[in-house]
């Protein structure tokens, strides 16, 4: 996942791992400097590695909430194929 802050001030970003019923399983927070960006792998130990396993399917979603508008791209590789996932602008849970 890649997140960019196009603003001229710091932006607080919260990434929430949601179960299928909408309850929050885990969260992480990032602070992006003005015009800053970051990327991370959701299955890394420092992110949601303890909650997501490559040996088990996860039925849920990820929500990205920010104090200001941000750019977001979700990317991945599955079965050797590269993919991107559309991001929506729904209210953050």
List keywords for this structure.
93 residues, mainly beta, 4-stranded antiparallel beta sheet, 3-stranded antiparallel beta sheet, 7 strands, globular
Structure description:
- The protein is mostly beta strands and 93 residues long.
- It has one domain.
- Helix content is 0%, strand content 47%.
- It has no helices and 7 strands.
- The strands form 2 sheets. Strands 4-1-6-7 form a 4-stranded antiparallel β-sheet, with no helix packed on it. Strands 3-2-5 form a 3-stranded antiparallel β-sheet, with no helix packed on it.
- Strand 2 and strand 3 form a beta hairpin.
- It starts with a strand and ends in an 8-residue tail after the last strand.
- The mean pLDDT is 85.
Secondary-structure blueprint:
Layout: E1 2-4, E2 11-19, E3 24-32, E4 37-39, E5 60-66, E6 71-78, E7 81-85
Antiparallel strand pairs: 1-4, 1-6, 2-3, 2-5, 6-7
